[in-house]
Amino acid sequence: MKAELRTVKTAAELSLAESYAAAKPKLPGDGKVVALREAAFKRFDAQGLPHRRVEAWKYTDLRAMMREAKPLAGLPDAAAKARAKTAGSLLADMDARRLMFVDGVFVPELSDLAKLETGLEIRPLAQSLASGDPLLATHLGRVVPSDGDPAVTLNTALMSDGAVIRVAAGATVERPIHLVFVATAEKPVSIFTRSLAVVEKGARVMLVESHEGAAGVEHQINTALELVIGEGAHADHVKIIGGDSSMVHVSTLMAAIGARARYNDFSYTTGGSVVRNQLFLRFDGEGTLANIRGATLLKGSQHADVTMVADHAAGGCQCREVFKTVLDDKSRGVFQGKIIVRQGSQKTDAKMMTNSLLLSDEAEANQKPELEIFADDVQCGHGATSGALDENLKFYLMARGIPEKEAETLLVQAFVGDAIEGVEHAGLRDALMDDVVAWLKARGT
Amino acid sequence: MAMLEIKNLHVKVDGKQILNGLNLTVGKGEVHAIMGPNGSGKSTLAYVMAGKAGYEATDGAILLDGENVLEMQPDERAAKGVFLAFQYPMEIPGVATMTFLRTALNAQRKQRGEAELSTPDFLKLVRDAAGKLEINMDMLRRGVNVGFSGGEKKRNEILQMALLQPRLCVLDETDSGLDIDALKIVSDGVNRLRSPDRSMVVITHYQRLLDHIVPDVVHVLSKGRIVKTGGKELAHELEASGYAQFQDDAA
Questions:
Q1: What is the CATH number of the domain that holds B42?
Q2: What's the pTM value of the predicted model, to 2 decimals?
Q3: Which residue of A97, A392, B107, B161 lies most exposed, with the fewest beta carbons within 10 A?
Q4: A400: which chain B residues are within 8 Å (Cβ-Cβ)?
């Protein structure tokens, strides 16, 4: 018998186990789902919350940052739904189909499921789990195996609701689909949402997720999206973790991308006290073009971590990754990015760049780019920079009469804009730039 | 009253004394050239007038219309009418030139208590000024100076000068990196801005710029102070005899 290395469980781990045991009978899903949850929880329970000695979580010691686990969220009442109405306002001007999830539960009366485009199917996850949706049987937990990542296993064990979306082969969905996740409970709660989107061969869709919580309430959010992108499909995915919120937010994207597809991903983070945003991407077919970008703006004592793994399981794909982080006050930004090129994935063209801009002497940037290349005919590279604003550029702007704060704003905008320009949807791009300007203005006061 | 009066200016950079009691008086509407060998303090003079950090005035004063600008931030000086045309203009990727020009113009107007320009008025102003300098509008939609040749950058400096309408223009080696054609476009641009209300300090190593921008007065700078002052013919003398004599004089 192997010796058990883990001895003492933390208070948070113990209450997660209690929550799971109590919730198990009520969580949606039949025998197969129950088995999936059970296996996932066992896996989680064996390793516990990730901590700094777990390499992938080195800079985000969740065990230390989550002293206690909050109770699972209950069903939202009328007051909670009323509070949720202003959620997703950053994208108010965008004509999107909104699906609203309040405290982790789909709320049909705040969502728009009318006149679905031809080829588009949308169902709440809870319903799909309960009814044995074949789409789940095929894909749930299988899109990109996350090697027992603790955030994903915990999510699988406790997932309550989310969206199940299918875009049929060849269908073009013009109107973006906006999943609005909002935590409104007045006392801190834990929320586990899981979504699945299958974009079939040659289909076209844009998915936006936004996550926000109430100011000053330390909700614990664990959310995941599995995304299947078929051959020749064109998918855009945008994730916004915003708002004036004190949540601990763990987000995971698992995307499998087929041949000759186009994929654009953008993550935008300004909210949360602790944020871990994971992207696990796998390229399954040749000739795909992908742009993976992100912008993070932090202040106060915020901590945000972007961890990305791009696995080139097939050759001949072009992938660009650009992540920008702006750090003010005592905030801390983390970027870990790994490009894997498997043996035989020849002609892979992958470049990753991460830049951090420190606006304060006390801010901290941790950047860890990695390449793991087993093929011999590839073009791969990575770069990482961190530094303060260029004083020479600032002087040039000021010498033309632009006051110092305004000069800084222009330079930070330019820094972040480099990543935001990659967002194809013009309305969304403008909304994000406006939000950056608002963030910078708030900083000045 | 002189528009610009520099009195006994001492400047240190990185703890090293660069300007040693420089005196210079430029009357309203006059163009003065500052010539001097490498290391004589020409660029330091330009930067200290514009207010660059790290250029520490340990003694003396720079009076613009009788007001000492040394205590002012660079943006306040600009609003008072000081303009430095940079020897090496900065590239600012991500900030479109149009945005930059508009922000600068409106910031200066705001500091002076004037109303912001309307979009059509601003566009007309830019289009006219850019046309004269053979700058096409597409270039101005790109990031500031990004992908510009040396000549284009210098033309962009003069465009900014034309739009901001400063009272005192300081041109720091504006001729460096220019071919003959570009030199002519830039010089014509500067000459169009000559006016009885505007003074200019033209800093250059070579006399050739002064064939195009003809100065009223020529000064020789050596070891951080003005060592000789004369008319425009002084530039030609220097071209023939070199700077060696002044370096010896000042030593």
A1: 3.40.50.300
A2: 0.87
A3: A392
A4: 75, 78, 100, 104, 107-108, 160, 164
